[in-house]
Specification:
566 residues; mainly alpha; two-stranded antiparallel sheet; 4 strands
């Protein structure tokens, strides 16, 4: 809304905005140039802003204005800034929707969709998309499933509601209504409007009517952006089958001819829905798993890089980050370390992840294709790399929970399988992230072997080594004598560095907690220095087993990824 540089709000404008009904009437009249109160649109927008999030005030506003008049208002002749007004209307509509029951949501959705559905009104779709996008931008949900997600994603949805998001029932009802508007017909008339033939141009412009520049003409763009703020709603919407259709919405939407903004919104909604893959609710988890597999295949096979905006590429990165088991599998396709099997990705091996989401061997082709397309957008490779690192940590913990050290006197009692329980997931992460780095460098034309996608500071090899050694310390695999080395001195004998991440447990023993590092940017490098000091002082070489083949994985993964060319 208008900030400090906006018009001063007069007492008359403040009075008009004091009730939702009066504000709706005043804005409607001012937008059409028929206002008698002396307040202009910009002043009324500023006066109404503080009230927009009040559900009661907002419902009064929508009732007085009429839901069918929302999309046309930002395009009215006396509106100086249609986007500013649209963003206010978006906040008001979101707040009002939280007061509606199911039937009211459906009635309001039908009214809104009906106001943009006919020839001559299609330009209003751009205003509606601006209206629907505003609250979504303010309440954007975390779409990366590497963070803990509550059962069914309800916590994320409630957070979006608390921050001013739309009611779920209104969004799904509106999306179903808007899906009935044919985007191909609108696209055809937009083509007419842009021809060099005057009669045809006039014909096309008449069909479109007024519109907001910079916003999509696809009716689903704004509503999908709004749905993306609610992961559970996104999952239910995309995987559900509406009563009016005989096939799931995902199947219908994947056959749609999207414009760039529409595809970005659709992909963002998919990314949000797939954050629920770690859900503790079996049905939700299965739906999200299946959607992730279908979406990766669809995007790789049915879309092309020239259709992507940076928002689309960030959403695809998040989708891949929400699928770390499959991405680890795909990017390790050439890794021969410890009997890695490409055709099945070892999903029958206890050391690897649960069975892939599509319940078939993982095909690396669509995953590597998508990674190649998006990695020239800043941040995408790091998003994926962080998810793979976290997945390795989680998998190592899962392995440790089902693995015990051998009893003395038994066969192979000189080998502790807990070392492999930690080593193998991390080695595969090293390889996968190095493959991703090589692929990225080939795509972008850079040549930086010492990649640091996880933290931006230490190399990924060092970072994963530090994480693996921390897990080994917490599993009790290190010698107590190792912890006697707690830092180092400078050449004058003064203490130069204390390893604050070596911590004492309540029972007096020691372990490693990297969250206690005094300089997190240097923690991984400090662990590497510490390991060298410990090996020299105590002769404990368990670290070599814990990080076995990390160096080769780093080198060969990078080399293999560098050969990928799309």
């Amino acid at each position: 809304m208008a900030g400090a540089s906006g018009p001063t709000v007069s007492s008359a404008a403040a009075d008009m905005a004091s009730s939702g009904g009066r504000a709706a009437q005043a804005l409607s009249e001012a937008a059409r140039g028929s206002g008698t109160g002396g307040a202009g649109v910009s002043e009324l927008v500023q006066a109404a802003g503080p009230h927009a999030g009040d559900p009661v005030w907002a419902n009064e506003f929508i009732t007085a204005l009429g839901a069918d008049n929302l999309a046309g208002l930002p395009l009215a002749g006396a509106v100086p800034d249609g986007q500013e007004l649209a963003h206010l209307l978006g906040r008001i509509l979101a707040a009002a929707s939280t007061t509606w029951d199911e039937q009211t949501c459906e009635t309001m959705a039908a009214a809104v969709a009906g106001s943009v559905a006919d020839k001559g009104e299609w330009g209003r779709i751009t205003a509606l998309n601006a209206i629907l996008t505003a609250p979504a931008a303010d309440t954007e949900a975390d779409t990366t499933g590497t963070e803990a997600v509550g059962a069914g994603g309800e916590e994320a949805d409630r957070a979006a509601d608390a921050d001013g998001g739309f009611a779920h029932g209104f969004l799904t009802a509106l999306a179903d209504e808007l899906a009935g508007i044919d985007p191909d017909t609108i696209s055809r008339y937009r083509g007419y409007a842009n021809t060099s033939y005057p009669d045809l141009t006039h014909f096309g412009k008449q069909a479109l009517g007024g519109y907001l520049t910079g916003y999509s003409f696809d009716p689903l763009t704004g509503v999908l952006d709004a749905i993306a703020a609610h992961p559970q709603t996104a999952l239910e919407y995309l995987t559900g089958t509406p009563a009016s259709a005989g096939r799931p919405r995902f199947e219908q939407l994947s056959q749609r001819q999207w414009d760039q903004q529409g595809l970005a919104a659709y992909t963002t909604a998919i990314a949000a829905a797939t954050t629920l893959r770690p859900s503790t609710t079996a049905g939700t988890r299965q739906q999200a798993d299946q959607l992730a597999g279908q979406a990766i295949t669809y995007l790789a096979a049915s879309t092309t890089e020239d259709q992507y905006t940076p928002a689309t590429e960030r959403a695809i990165a998040t989708l891949l980050a929400n699928s770390p088991a499959e991405v680890t599998c795909a990017l390790n396709q050439d890794n021969s370390y410890k009997s890695w099997h490409t055709p099945t990705c070892d999903y029958g091996n206890n050391w690897f992840e649960r069975q892939p989401s599509i319940y078939e061997p993982v095909d690396p082709t669509p995953i590597t294709a998508l990674a190649w397309r998006i990695t020239d957008t800043p941040g995408t490779a790091s998003t994926i790399a962080n998810a793979l690192a976290e997945y390795a940590r989680t998998q190592a913990q899962t392995n440790l929970n089902t693995t015990t050290s051998p009893k003395p006197g038994t066969v192979n009692d000189d080998y502790d399988p807990r070392v492999d329980a930690i080593n193998i997931p991390y080695q595969r992460a090293v390889y996968a992230i190095s493959y991703l780095a090589g692929l990225t460098e080939n795509k972008t034309g850079t040549n930086t072997y010492n990649h640091a996608l996880i933290t931006g500071h230490s190399t990924d090899d060092n970072q994963l080594s530090a994480m693996a050694i921390q897990d080994a310390a917490n599993a009790g695999l290190l010698d107590p004598e190792d912890y006697t080395i707690t830092g180092y001195n400078d050449h004058n004998g003064n203490r130069a560095k204390t390893f604050t991440w070596i911590v004492t447990k309540p029972d007096g023993t020691h372990t490693i907690d990297l969250t206690q590092a005094d300089d997190p940017t240097m923690a991984a490098d400090d662990v590497s220095t510490w390991v060298e000091m410990v090996e020299a002082a105590t002769g404990d070489y368990v670290f070599e087993d814990i990080t076995d083949d990390f160096g080769n994985g780093y080198m060969h993964g990078h080399r293999s990824g560098s050969k990928y060319g799309g």
